[in-house]
Specification:
2 copies of one chain form a homodimer. The first copy, chain A, is α/β, with parallel strands linked by helices. Chain A has 15 helices and 18 strands. In chain A, a hairpin with a 5-residue loop joins strand 1 and strand 2. In chain A, helix 2 runs parallel beside helix 3, helix 4 runs parallel beside helix 5 and helix 12 crosses helix 14. Chains A, B: One of its GO terms (molecular function) is 5'-methylthioadenosine deaminase activity.
């Protein structure tokens, strides 16, 4: 029994072509793409609308939305030490719940149907995911140098056992060792052993800044990528965030070990981390998805902006206007993002038997005219605020720009109150 | 008599501070900023809204909006020769009118109150500006190598005499020699003589690509900037678009001759032109505004996107997170942009006696929460689609997201029809 039909939209099909057609959804999946004559509980008129796979955000720290605009235009370590870390010390589990919900609201309203999180108080993150209806891949961030190092391992194991494949399969769990510079080799070996025991994959920050790569070379005589290979970490299915400063040798290892990359152009630009060699990675056949990173370092969670930056940054950096064409950027934000999370058979494509994770753009505004090429319009001209309808796992979570599972007014009031409290407390320190 | 009051908004004042206060408008100007108790024909509740000077777009080719998404991800000369130039040959004066109106609609809806245009069929551009109510600085583009070279000079003179300071002062006119590589020295001398005769300023493309700078060096033994100085062109008040490939010596000349720069980060990224040394120009005390360039090479006319790119691109290019802070980027999009057009005493600031050119952002969406710093939110998190109200010259042109002087539905239908015709014609050539 068909419960939703999207009628007459311009659909980005799995073959990369845009065609005017219908989509039928039954339960949580797409059951047909083509002319649908069947009745349905809900028929959505999609004339003059562009229908694309929901965006997949492969790297963020959702609850950091509470620190959005708190501290910008600063040197990284100054920003962390004087602003972010002191403020984070004040975070309660309730703050993390509300901060995550704020991030989810923003992501749904800008067309994201699946995100990847690494933070703490993860059961509260999972609760926000479960309640809101979005899809997510969650990791308890672990720092081997912190006093909570062993506690983080234990929490990760419990969190995996409790939440992996929970919420009707919408939540999957990975282990989240923060980075080689916060997790010494002995600790990473424990993480690897735990991954082996649980059969879980790993989400980690690798080679974000030139400084950390130089330190790693100095301390261990090899790059972070090569060090991870030596420790056996790369044998467990790794999602590596950033990979800005990777060498051709690193890329060879990454390809061989099937490392998937979360590229965060907005964060890399704003924090002045550098430009990742994404065209080289793609040429090597490495899977590269896109991520927003946390709202404190971006400062929004707009995947369309990341998609556009991916298409534009590498052109100017390589002085090559063909560096990352529109179609490649769209793939990175959707199907490659899903692959990067190990969900390539589940989401990221509009195809029969895939989960109904769908974003519908309204094309009425002037910047969508004339329409010579819809993928080009999406990549270079559209706004995430043109997102009209968002469906996740067959449920409508954004209906004509209104959230259906989240009370936006209450949420933003809570976020304002909590954001101010966190910062005021940290300022008095 | 006060005719509009903006009540209780968060106002970006001329001193760079954001304060909650009121703004009174009488006729075309701001008459008071502070607590207003007077009655007014229209009172707009601006609680939870951010009020900023309207954005000033210092460089575009408005009617090229008809070629939006027609050809992307191509080499520059290939793009021009096989796509844009053949399509432009089909343009009629009516197409230019409708293409300009499409651009104006998009600009108003994204908070731009003044734009700078260089194109042809300029009386039709002026008609669209006059009817829509926006402010503009217009130039008839002139190419000395084209068969229309002398005609363009005559048209420029007529256009200046007819339209400079027209539409209640909303339109000013500059001369628009296209670039040194399309205007040989003899022709530029004629342009300079005409500028002298009329007392007009000059809008020109300078040093956009490395190739044109190399060619200029080869042909004339000096850079485009040095060549323009030699020809006396820089003595007439020059707005120079791009200035991507300028040397320290060029920057010294630019400072000395008070050249103002239109920086177009989006176009420079997408066309892979390179990264302009904007931090060096600003440090030298050169006035730098922001521009979108034409929609065929951007592909939208969203000044907030340019503002954000200006803040982010130079950070990653210089590996310096302090390169262009939020406040500087906002200044470039507003007050410096107005200065660049010679309108620094007219627009670009919220100050008593300035023209009421004002953009009001609605801060209700999740990406505006929490609000630790409103300028940071505007620069790094906001969307141009959050623009709620736009006032130009004291008239409300966008009222609760609705255009008041343009029939959007008719406009987009016309634009679609004309855009398709232009391209179909050019394809059969």
């Amino acid at each position: 029994m068909v419960h939703i039909v999207l009628k007459g939209g311009d659909v980005l099909c799995a073959d990369g072509q845009v065609r005017q057609t219908d989509i039928a959804i039954s339960g949580s999946v797409i059951t047909q793409i083509g002319t649908i004559t069947e009745q349905a509980a809900r028929i959505i008129d999609c004339q003059n609308k562009l229908i694309v796979p929901g965006f997949v955000n492969t790297h963020t720290h959702a609850a950091m939305s509470l620190f959005r605009s708190y501290a910008d235009d600063m040197m990284l370590m100054d920003w962390l030490k004087t602003k972010i870390w002191p403020a984070e010390e004040n975070l309660t589990s309730e703050d993390v719940y509300w901060g995550t919900l704020l991030a989810i609201a923003e992501m749904l309203k800008s067309g994201t149907t699946c995100f990847t999180d690494m933070y703490f108080f993860m059961p509260d993150v999972a609760k926000a995911v479960a309640e809101s209806g979005i899809r997510a891949v969650l990791s308890r961030g672990m720092a081997g140098v912190a006093p909570t190092a062993n506690q983080a391992l234990a929490e990760s194991e419990n969190f995996y056992n409790e939440w992996h494949n929970a919420a009707g399969g919408r939540i999957t769990v990975m282990l989240g060792p923060h980075a080689p510079y916060t997790c010494p080799p002995d600790y990473l070996k424990k993480v690897t052993a735990l991954a082996e025991k649980l059969g879980s994959q790993i989400h980690i920050h690798l080679s974000e800044t030139a400084g950390e790569v130089a330190d790693c070379q100095k301390q261990y005589g090899k790059s972070p990528i090569a060090l991870m290979e030596e420790l056996g970490l790369l044998d467990h299915g790794v999602l590596a965030a950033h990979c800005v400063h990777v060498s051709p040798e690193d890329i060879t290892i990454m390809k061989q070990k099937k490392v998937r990359v979360a590229h965060n152009p907005g964060s890399n630009m704003k924090l002045a981390s550098g430009v990742a060699p994404v065209p080289d990675m793609l040429k090597a056949g490495i899977c590269v998805g896109l991520g927003t990173d946390g709202a404190a370092s971006n400062n929004n969670l707009d995947m369309l902006e990341e998609l556009r930056l991916a298409a534009m940054l590498h052109k100017v950096h390589r002085l090559d206007p063909l560096a990352i064409p529109a179609k490649t950027a769209v793939d990175m934000a959707t199907s490659q993002g899903a692959e990067a999370l190990g969900l390539g058979k589940i989401t990221g494509k509009l195809e029969t038997s895939y989960k109904a994770d769908i974003t519908v753009f309204d094309m009425k505004e002037p910047h969508w005219h004339p329409r010579h090429d819809r993928l080009s319009l999406l990549t270079y001209a559209a706004s995430a605020r043109d997102v009209h309808t968002v469906i996740v796992d067959g449920k409508i979570l954004l209906d004509n720009q209104q959230l259906t599972t989240i009370d936006q007014e209450r949420l933003t009031a809570e976020a304002d109150r909590r954001g101010m409290r966190l910062v005021n407390n940290s300022n008095t320190k």
